Amino acid sequence: MHSLLLCSSLVGLASAAELEKRHGGFSVYEMLNDDLARLSLMVLGLMAAFIYVWKMWHRLASHMRRLASFTNERQRYFVSPHGMLAKINNYIIYAPLFRTRHNREFQLSRAVNMGTLPSRFHSFLLVGIVAMNIVLCVVTVPYGSSETTVAGLIRNRTGTMATVNLIPVVLMAGRNNPLITLLQVPFDTFNLIHRWLARIVVLQSLAHVFAWAIPKAQKSGWDVIGMVFGESSFMLNGLIAACAFTALLVHSPSPIRHAFYETFLHLHMVLVALSFGFLWLHLDGMVSQNYLLVAVIFWALERAARIFIILYRNCGRESTTAHIEALPGDAMRITLKMTRPWAFHPGQHIYLYIPSVGWWMSHPFSVGWSEAEEFPAGEKGIPMTQQDLVSLKKTTISLLVRRRTGFTDKLFQRAQKSTGGRVSLRAFAEGPYGSIHTMDSYGTVMLFAGGVGITHQVPFVRHLVKGFAEGTVAARRVTLVWIIQSPEHLEWIRPWMTSILAMDRRREVLRIMLFITRPRNTKEIQSPSATVQMFPGRPNVDTLVGLEVENQIGAMGVLVCGNGSLSDDVRRVCRKKQDQTQVDFIEESFTW
């Protein structure tokens, strides 16, 4: 990438020099601004194309592996690691930035969350994006010219780059980002890039302002700067837009986002609208206004898609209703009776709106269970249309939610204060989103869950056990490891687990291991059967994964959904096994 940028810079310098001879002014350098801006989009597009090819190769290999398992019970060929791929996974894809810490958050206190470190691969990606923007902002500038000339060129260049970067910033912030499905890259990765690109936009905007203001002040004094802003609406609009962008940067650090999320979100939307509005006025009649228009169109399409999904999913002859039940351990089981039938896949999540609790707030929750129910027709013997048949099918969605602060705290209190610890409220569900990972091609599957992270794993257990009985998946060994603090937390998923334990051929494929970290006494720790076992304390992840490796069938997939410490521990062990056997590590997390 750096070689490409260097070559383009040299070509740009040569062409600019030639144009300067023909046209006799430094304004010809401005002709390169749009070319370099488009080059930045092209580089991002090439990166996306590379990831697409990489992911397609993985999907094809997984599909062929699943097909091969139908005629090969032991799947021995897929146990051996692939040398080069194993090294790439160990040192780049799965590797934290430093040592073993990646998803475990840095906390100054329980209320002050400093966020997490990016992975090594993400760090390489971000460094490349930052370097590209620095290079494109400074190449082709004739540094031997006067300070005023150099400042003017950098001013125009940084302004153009800041505007063009708004396109990927907006695209990567959306829940309905088409690249999530196309590239099979999770939303939290795009959200990470969104945050860093947004920081680059702010810095480029400030460079744009100061590259104009400093030479002006040196020549005429700072009093003139104030007079210009007072007399020129063009300059004032640009200043307000830059101030709004700066405010977005100031109020977006991780501690503020986590401690005051709802306030952050509302203020974020107001500041974005303010910055875009005044930037539009500032760019009136300029070519760069087209870049802003593209960003606004992307934003409008994403919002329109969300509104359509919400209305389609929740509005019909009946409305969506949420039945909230307070559970032991500050948890809630939310059962949604949907207006229309849905088709869910393991690993998907929805965004839940409950207007009576938080008017326009939505929060992501993994779908722990879903069922399609058929309701009898009102009268027998009357011919029914296809639409009538669909209307008689209802989807029930179940979520498991841990009480935190804000929205979940208010919701828990509403349920707890109601008769029987249950309350029914009008709700809206948006989605489903996610499900970019499939475990169907792995002969051996390990699912680690911590606390309410079990909601992400239960659908995989259900799907794999059913697929094993029907012969549609490669899985021959499925192990669920769930870490909870108290035995009473088992009530969270009791109805779901009862259904799974009654599934056909479940004992042949599924083993469940429950670890109770804070048991009141040892009598509470009793294993119901050989395939469902309970243990006191925390699991030794290294030992558990090692036991599965010794009895491994086919390729092994390890999926974890829990707190940062658990995820990092499982990641560390899977990296150690890369040169021994075929082990894929998959992490599910909502990081933002």
TrEMBL record:
CDD domains: NOX_Duox_like_FAD_NADP. It comes from the Eukaryota. Residues 1-16 form the signal peptide. Keywords: Cell membrane, Electron transport, Ion transport, Membrane, Oxidoreductase, Signal, Transmembrane, Transmembrane helix, Transport. It catalyses: 2 a Fe(II)-siderophore + NADP(+) + H(+) = 2 a Fe(III)-siderophore + NADPH. Residues 314-439 form the FAD-binding FR-type domain. One of its GO terms (cellular component) is plasma membrane. It is found in: Cell membrane. GO terms for molecular function: ferric-chelate reductase (NADPH) activity. GO terms for biological process: copper ion import; intracellular iron ion homeostasis; iron ion transport. PROSITE patterns: FAD_FR. It is a multi-pass membrane protein. Its EC number is 1.16.1.9. The chain crosses the membrane at residues 40-57, 124-145, 196-214, 234-252, 264-283, 289-312. The keyword Nucleotide-binding does not apply. InterPro entries: FAD-bd_8, FAD-bd_FR_type, Fe3_Rdtase_TM_dom, Fe_red_NAD-bd_6, Ferric/Cupric_Reductase, FNR_nucleotide-bd, Riboflavin_synthase-like_b-brl. Belongs to the ferric reductase (FRE) family. This is ferric-chelate reductase (NADPH). It comes from Aspergillus sclerotioniger CBS 115572.
